[in-house]
C-alpha cells in the first residue's frame, strides 16, 4: 500500500531521523515539571511535550497506561495527543499492548487503528500471549487502513526473558516463533504492516531476531533511562537499522519543562538517530 505506515515512516525518517519520542506522563514526570497530579497537569505536560516533539521527531508514542489512570478524561487527552501529533507531521504509535482474540481483537482495531477508529492512531502495540494468530483481526485492520501493529517479540526488561526465550514444541523460542508469524503476515510487502517490539537493551541477541524479520519495522524502546544509547541500537540492528524506530521517553521528558531545553534534547536525539 502506497500510503502504508511503513512507507510513511521510511519517508519521514529520511527527513527527520528515526526517533520516537515516548509520552509517559507518570506521577514522577508531572512532579518533576512542578505540575499538579490531575487532569490539568496531564494536559499541560502533553501539550508542551507533544507541541515540541511532533514537528521534530518521526514518531510519537503515548503510553496508554498513563492516560488510562485519569479515566475517561485521560482517554480524551490521549485522543487529543494523537490529533496534535498528526498536526505536527509525525506518526503515532499508541503503546497500549493490547492482545485478545476474535471479535475482541477486532474491537481493539476499531479502537486504535487508522482513520475511522476511535483514537485514530497510526499504530498500536500488541501482546501475543493468546497466540499470535489470534491477533489476525487486528492485522487485517492494519493492512486495510494503512496502519501498523507492533507485536512484543523481545521486550527491553530483563523479566521478559524467561517467557520470550522459552522453547516451543517445534524447537524455536517463543520470540523466534513470533518472528516467523510476523514474516508470514508481511509476505506481500517490502516492509509490512506488522512490526516487532525488540528492546534497545538486548545487545548481541538482537542480530538473531532481526535476521528472522527481513521485512518488518522494529520499535526499540529502552534508550535513555533503561541504559541503551542510540549508538547501541545502530550497532545491534546493523543493516536493519533503516527499519528501526529507537524510542526515548524519560530521558527526553527530564529535560523539561524548559521548552528550549526540551527542543534541544529532542533535536540531539533526532540527529543522532539519522541513518549515517
Ligand atoms: O519492551 C518494552 C516495551 C515497551 N516499553 C515502554 O516504553 C517506554 C520506555 O520508557 P523509557 O523512559 O524510555 O525507559 C515505557 O512506556 C515502557 O512501558 C519498554 O520500556 N520496553
TrEMBL record:
<comment type="similarity">
    <text>Belongs to the OMP decarboxylase family. Type 2 subfamily.</text>
</comment>
<comment type="pathway">
    <text>Pyrimidine metabolism; UMP biosynthesis via de novo pathway; UMP from orotate: step 2/2.</text>
</comment>
<dbReference type="GO" id="GO:0004590">
    <property type="term" value="F:orotidine-5'-phosphate decarboxylase activity"/>
</dbReference>
<keyword id="KW-0665">Pyrimidine biosynthesis</keyword>
<protein>
    <recommendedName>
        <fullName>Orotidine-5'-phosphate decarboxylase</fullName>
        <ecNumber>4.1.1.23</ecNumber>
    </recommendedName>
</protein>
<dbReference type="InterPro" id="IPR013785">
    <property type="entry name" value="Aldolase_TIM"/>
</dbReference>
<dbReference type="GO" id="GO:0044205">
    <property type="term" value="P:'de novo' UMP biosynthetic process"/>
</dbReference>
<dbReference type="InterPro" id="IPR011995">
    <property type="entry name" value="OMPdecase_type-2"/>
</dbReference>
<dbReference type="Pfam" id="PF00215">
    <property type="entry name" value="OMPdecase"/>
</dbReference>
<dbReference type="InterPro" id="IPR011060">
    <property type="entry name" value="RibuloseP-bd_barrel"/>
</dbReference>
<dbReference type="InterPro" id="IPR001754">
    <property type="entry name" value="OMPdeCOase_dom"/>
</dbReference>
<dbReference type="GO" id="GO:0006207">
    <property type="term" value="P:'de novo' pyrimidine nucleobase biosynthetic process"/>
</dbReference>
<feature type="domain" description="Orotidine 5'-phosphate decarboxylase">
    <location>
        <begin position="18"/>
        <end position="265"/>
    </location>
</feature>
<keyword id="KW-0456">Lyase</keyword>
<keyword id="KW-0210">Decarboxylase</keyword>
Amino acid at each position: 500500500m502506497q500510503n502504508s505506515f511503513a512507507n510513511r515512516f521510511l519517508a519521514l525518517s529520511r527527513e527527520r531521523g528515526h526517533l520516537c519520542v515516548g509520552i509517559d506522563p507518570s506521577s514522577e514526570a508531572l512532579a518533576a515539571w512542578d505540575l499538579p497530579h490531575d487532569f490539568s497537569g496531564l494536559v499541560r505536560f502533553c501539550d508542551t511535550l507533544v507541541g515540541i516533539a511532533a514537528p521534530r521527531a518521526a514518531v510519537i508514542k503515548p503510553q496508554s497506561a498513563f492516560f488510562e489512570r485519569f479515566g475517561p478524561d485521560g482517554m480524551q487527552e490521549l485522543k487529543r495527543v494523537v490529533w496534535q501529533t498528526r498536526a505536527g507531521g509525525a506518526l503515532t504509535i499508541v503503546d497500549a499492548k493490547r492482545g485478545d482474540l476474535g471479535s475482541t481483537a477486532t474491537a481493539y482495531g476499531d479502537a486504535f487503528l487508522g482513520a475511522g477508529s476511535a483514537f485514530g492512531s497510526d499504530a498500536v502495540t500488541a501482546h501475543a500471549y493468546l497466540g499470535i494468530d489470534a491477533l489476525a483481526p487486528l492485522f487485517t485492520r492494519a493492512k486495510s487502513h494503512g496502519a501498523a501493529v507492533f507485536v512484543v517479540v523481545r521486550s527491553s526488561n530483563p523479566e521478559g526473558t524467561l517467557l520470550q526465550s522459552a522453547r516451543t514444541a517445534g524447537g524455536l523460542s517463543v520470540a523466534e516463533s513470533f518472528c516467523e508469524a510476523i514474516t508470514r503476515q508481511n509476505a506481500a510487502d517490502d516492509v509490512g504492516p506488522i512490526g516487532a517490539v525488540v528492546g534497545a537493551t538486548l545487545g548481541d541477541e538482537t542480530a538473531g531476531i532481526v535476521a528472522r524479520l527481513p521485512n518488518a519495522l522494529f520499535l526499540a524502546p529502552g534508550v535513555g533511562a533503561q541504559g541503551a544509547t542510540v549508538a547501541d541500537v545502530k550497532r545491534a540492528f546493523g543493516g536493519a537499522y533503516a527499519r528501526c524506530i529507537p524510542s526515548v521517553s524519560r530521558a527526553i521528558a527530564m529535560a523539561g519543562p524548559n521548552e528550549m531545553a526540551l527542543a534541544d534534547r529532542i533535536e540531539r536525539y533526532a540527529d543522532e538517530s539519522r541513518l549515517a
